[in-house]
Design goal:
heterodimer, A: about 450 residues, 3 domains, B: about 90 residues, mainly alpha, 4 helices, about 80% helix
């Protein structure tokens, strides 16, 4: 009877999670959706504490106090510029929690002589997915944090090594299923899958991080679902698969925004095709550089300005200076909008979060498909720290590594100002003919400093 | 075996529910959806609580407590940071 009541409560919490996630997908209901999720979690935790197997609470309290304190500190302290790192880390924590629970459940089942095929297979799955999620997320975090290089690290023979690792994990997995009482085999699987998780993420470069973070988000849900199979707990299965589905949807949105398949992001290498133009051919003698004063004069006759942010805005923490310039222009009756590419930055929605932090109203952030048809009516487009997502080669050269990637059509604006430190290529490693276009001016500067200069120049002109 | 088929049914149906309810996510909500679903994937905590509270062996208790701590970071940190972010969006 007690068990039925607990399971009924789990069903209610699952319903809260479903409405919670649904709410999170619409701006008007998002806050409520998040609260519903929290209520669902509260119900699930409280009824679990009535489980008859629980005989002591002190260890539980210790774990909750430690985790709760760390979680709350993270949540309150994190800067919006640090959100990609935090999300990456939290994906990993979900993965390791699942693999630890599966490990403990294996030991319990063996000592109670209660292990069975479904449980053992699920334990292996949970160990593999959980370790890949944890270590993959740690590598993603290290790349975002700058602890290790953000570039792709391509080990020779990496595909072969990965196949060996997967094969080894499967072999040891079979041994777990055949000999559950030797549960140290489980930890061997965890070790193998940990290496696999590291191997899976190190070849992925910084600009592909939005895809990887979404995918690891999905894995953290699938790890929870696998643990649900271990414990025969429907609440874990339902909730884990919801998160898994949500992560996969985001992954697909990100891949589509780059016109690349998931397999290509994970295993492929971006290479410039033979015969593509070199940087010298594209730029020589054609690049015009500019200054804050010149740009200030451009604004004099302008009616509509579009700002296109990229990862460089996040790096130089320019979002507040960008907002200040926008406010100043708006005070002169110039219409300012922001064009946000879906994969600009290092995680889905990165630019939106940064600009929201700087108090930019979100109706001013315009999606790529909406703003592109209106770019011809734009007097000045300012690109800050973006490169590949505004490279017109994506439209014109079918052999380019970014061929077919949807871009923001800044080249159609009357004048384009590109704020960038140098002419160095973006992640795709190819030159950008936009920088040499007749209507383009390069403002070689740090992102934040460039906007400060523009603001000062405008004020001096007054 | 029968229990497995039931569990698998629930799993497959829940994935379909997930795909159906998440229709079009506006870019503004991509990050909050991720951090919010992150918090929800902390549901593993209910397995962790049982392992930590059963006190079967020292090892299972340690594994359980560590899992409780990690999952609680996810739950508490995830819901709080999502709330913080969404409030920022709403202010306008």
């Amino acid at each position: 009877m007690r068990e039925s009541i607990i399971n009924f409560a789990y069903l209610i919490s699952a319903i809260f999670f479903i409405f919670g996630i649904k709410g999170l997908t619409h701006p008007r209901t998002a806050v409520k959706g998040n609260l519903r999720g929290a209520i669902g979690m509260f119900i699930a935790i409280v009824v679990t504490l009535f489980n008859q197997h629980i005989i002591s609470y002190e260890m539980i309290i210790i774990g909750i106090v430690i985790g709760g304190t760390i979680g709350a500190i993270f949540a309150v302290r994190v800067q919006m510029t640090g959100m990609p790192e935090m999300v990456a880390l939290f994906n990993g924590f979900g993965g390791i929690a699942s693999l630890l629970v599966a490990g403990a459940a294996l030991i319990e089942a063996v000592s109670n002589n209660a292990s069975h095929l479904q449980m053992l297979v699920a334990t292996v799955a949970s160990g593999i997915i959980g370790s890949v999620t944890f270590w993959g997320s740690l590598v993603a975090w290290a790349k975002l944090q700058g602890v290790m290089t953000g570039n792709a690290i391509l080990l020779p023979g990496r595909h072969f090594i990965n196949i060996l690792l997967v094969a080894a994990a499967v072999v040891v997995g079979v041994m777990v299923v055949m000999n559950p009482s030797d549960f140290h085999y489980y930890w061997i699987i965890v070790a193998i899958a940990s290496v696999l998780g590291i191997m899976a993420v190190i070849p992925i470069g910084g600009a592909d991080m939005p895809v990887v973070i979404s995918l690891l988000n999905s894995y953290s849900g699938l790890a929870a679902a696998a643990t649900g199979f271990v414990l025969s707990n429907n609440s874990l299965i339902i909730t884990g698969s919801l998160v898994g589905a949500s992560g996969i949807i985001l992954t697909m949105i990100m891949c589509k925004a780059m016109n690349r398949s998931l397999a290509h992001v994970l295993f492929g290498v971006l290479e410039a095709a033979e015969g593509s133009a070199t940087a010298d051919e594209v730029y020589a003698g054609k690049v015009t550089s500019t200054s804050g004063e010149e740009i200030a004069m451009l604004f004099d006759g302008a009616q509509r300005v579009v700002i296109v942010p990229g990862y460089g805005m996040a790096v130089s923490q320019a979002q507040h200076a960008v907002r200040d310039l926008a406010n100043l222009l708006e005070s002169k009756d110039i219409n300012v909008e922001y064009a946000v590419h879906p994969v600009a930055g290092r995680m889905p929605g990165h630019m939106n979060v940064l600009l929201a932090e700087a108090n930019v109203p979100y109706e001013k952030l315009i999606e790529m498909d909406t703003i592109n048809p209106t770019m011809e009516q734009c007097d000045v487009a300012i690109v800050v720290g973006a490169n590949d997502v505004v490279n017109p080669v994506a439209r014109t050269d079918p052999n380019s590594p970014i061929a077919g990637m949807p871009i923001i059509d800044v080249d159609k604006a009357r004048t384009v100002v590109v704020v960038k430190r140098s002419l160095s290529p973006g992640f795709a490693g190819i030159p950008n003919p936009l920088f040499a276009a007749d209507n383009a001016l390069m403002f070689f500067n740090d992102g934040k400093q460039a906007f400060v200069d523009m603001i000062e120049a405008i004020k001096e002109n007054e | 075996m029968e229990a497995f088929v039931i569990a698998l049914t629930i799993f497959v149906l829940a994935i379909f529910v997930g795909f159906e309810i998440i229709t079009k996510v506006p870019p503004t909500l991509h990050t909050p959806l991720m951090s919010g679903s992150n918090a929800i994937s902390g549901i593993t905590i209910i397995g962790a609580l049982i392992s930590a509270g059963t006190k079967l062996t020292l090892l299972t208790t340690i594994l359980g407590v560590a899992a409780v701590a990690f999952a609680t970071i996810n739950v508490v940190g995830g819901f709080l940071v999502t709330h913080r972010m969404l409030k920022m969006f709403k202010r306008d």
